[in-house]
Amino acid sequence: MKISIIGVGLIGGSIALKLKQKNTADFIYGIDSNIDNLADALQLNIINEKADFKTGIESADLIIIAVPVDSAVKILPQVLDLISDHQTVMDVGSTKSGIVKSVENHPKRSRFVAFHPMWGTENHGPKSAVAASFSGKAGVICDREKSAKDALELVESVVLDLDMHIIHMSAEDHDIHTAYISHISHITSYALANTVLEKEKEEETIFQLASSGFSSTVRLAKSHPEMWLPIFKQNKENVLDALNEHISQLRKFKSALEKDNFEFLEELITNANKIRGILDK
Amino acid sequence: MKISIIGVGLIGGSIALKLKQKNTADFIYGIDSNIDNLADALQLNIINEKADFKTGIESADLIIIAVPVDSAVKILPQVLDLISDHQTVMDVGSTKSGIVKSVENHPKRSRFVAFHPMWGTENHGPKSAVAASFSGKAGVICDREKSAKDALELVESVVLDLDMHIIHMSAEDHDIHTAYISHISHITSYALANTVLEKEKEEETIFQLASSGFSSTVRLAKSHPEMWLPIFKQNKENVLDALNEHISQLRKFKSALEKDNFEFLEELITNANKIRGILDK
Q1: Closest approach of A20 to chain B, Cα-based (Å)
Q2: Which residues of chain A from 154 to 213 reach within 8 Å of chain B, CB to CB?
Q3: CA A85 remoteness from chain centre
Q4: Cβ separation of B250 and A188 shorter than 8 Å?
Q5: What is the pLDDT of residues A36-92, one digit of tens each?
Q6: Could you tell me the CATH superfamily of domain B2-170?
Q7: Closest B-chain CA to A195
Q8: Average pLDDT over residues B110-114
């Protein structure tokens, strides 16, 4: 199968590496407005050839859109305009309501399958791409009833080739869930980084004491705005819900401390400890 | 040198393993009110022998107190009561003002060196102990002017044997710094866990989507209240300062989102990204 990947960054690059390894892809075209990324992807054998937008799309059986979600909603209709009924299009965006809405009335809507692999890192670009990235992780397919049977089957086989397990849900549910399980984690990390950076202006030695605990909690704060600003923008209402809940949870800790209510503080900690049983099972 | 370790858990156990490996310790006594931990520590060759409080303390050149900080402030004066001027005592607690205050007028104060290794995990108990835990991390020694020269030199040589680099500061400064670089990370993680656990009551599938990003940010939420409740209690004022700053940083994200002020949101993210340069250098 010939595959075109629009956006040969961390996610697009990792998918390309894995699908080559699995022989799912015989040939991969790379389409990217960032010529450095294209050059890196070629050099790293992530793609076989770079292509312009039109040629790349017309030459592929499967087109994978792996650009930030604000670009994805603009690019998807243009891709559908160019394809035939024998071609399939999938995306990998972290928000799903916006992208399915961008093509809801498009005559080729059924050739598109909305997908989100639950994997990412704070890094970006093809140099960070790793073939094994997705193994064992969840691959979410949204609004499957809007996709043609053969398109859905093709994308599902690709997701299984990425060694992911498939979860189906509506785009709307996806965006609620990811606000809580992914988007809010990023805001928490960004805000924690800013908290400590603000304090560091007075206390210069603060980062000498950073241990692995701090590094772990703040890791996502390294994530780039090019990817995350459009996600927060598109999923604004759900992210605000999660953020309000998170601030109200933090206020419980504040209130318990202020009132020397250490029984309540212990209760809050013990409740949070339940995450161990859930994440480790 | 003979060493007694009071509290053969994650930290006490890891120190014991490392100091045996380095031949700093010829013989290690373990003192612990938890008999399971003592049995595990014996079986894992973390300690040579278990001892009762009095015998353990009188038999050792160096006594290391590695219990939660609420117990440490009670135990330290009792230990100093029992020792001679040829013995040295150190602790490993995550708060330092309380412990130095607990012995400020003790006649044996100068035999005590206040220490905090900047390492820990969300796990506990001797089974989680690892000899290499401390390598490359910061070891903070507080209020060194209050310790006798020979006691300080002994503890510094032990810290170097743990492969740590030594940082000196006052107990007061230590508690301000760790509130920001360590204690607040734990509250953030606990509150994030509670945020998602609260939402899960409505949305059962939410944890199926958990990726490594969420796991990383929420990892510290697995940490036990036995250790952390006393830390928050002892460092209440500094933790509240950090928590207030953190909530105010989160409110900036909330306000930017609510007002569709994406320029400000981008600024907040870009500022947080600076953490990459600081942590990776």
Answers
A1: 24
A2: 167, 169, 173, 176-178, 180-182, 184-199, 203, 205-213
A3: 27
A4: yes
A5: 999 999 999 999 999 999 999 999 999 999 999 999 999 999 999 999 999 999 999
A6: NAD(P)-binding Rossmann-like Domain (3.40.50.720)
A7: B246
A8: 98
Tell me the C-alpha distance between B273 and B36, whole Å.
45
In this model, does residue B97 exceed pLDDT 80? yes
C-alpha to C-alpha distance for B265 and A191, rounded to whole angstroms: 11
Backbone angles phi, psi at A153, to 5 degrees: -65, -40
Which residues of chain A does CATH 3.40.50.720 include?
A: 2-169
Give dist(CA B95, CA B140) in Å, integer. Answer: 11
What is the distance between the alpha carbons of residues A17 and B237, in angstroms, rounded to a whole number? 51
Question: Which stretches of B137-250 are assigned E, i.e. beta strand?
Answer: 138-142, 165-169
Nearest to A246 among B191, B221, B228 (CB): B191
Specify the CATH architecture of the domain A2-169: 3-Layer(aba) Sandwich (3.40)
* CATH 1.10.3660.10 residue window(s) in chain B: 174-279
Of A137, A189, A211, which is closest to B120 when you measure between CB atoms?
Answer: A211
Is the minimum CB–CB distance between B217 and chain A shorter than 8 Å? yes
Looking at residue A8, its pLDDT comes to: 96
What stretch(es) of chain B map to CATH 3.40.50.720?
2-170
The CATH classification number of A174-279 equals: 1.10.3660.10
Beta-carbon separation of A271 and B236 below 8 A: no
Q: Tell me, yes or no, if A271 comes closer than 8 A to chain B by beta carbon.
A: yes
- Give the tokens for residue A239: 């992210």
Q: Which two tokens stand for residue A100?
A: 């399915």
Q: Which residues of chain A have pLDDT under 50?
A: none
pLDDT of residue B210: 84
Residue A163 CB coordination number (10 Å): 16
CB contact under 8 Å between B185 and A270, yes or no, is no
Q: What number is the ipTM of this complex?
A: 0.92
Kindly indicate the confidence band of residue B200, based on its pLDDT and cuts at 50, 70 and 90: confident
How near does any CA of chain B get to the CA of A51, in Å? 31
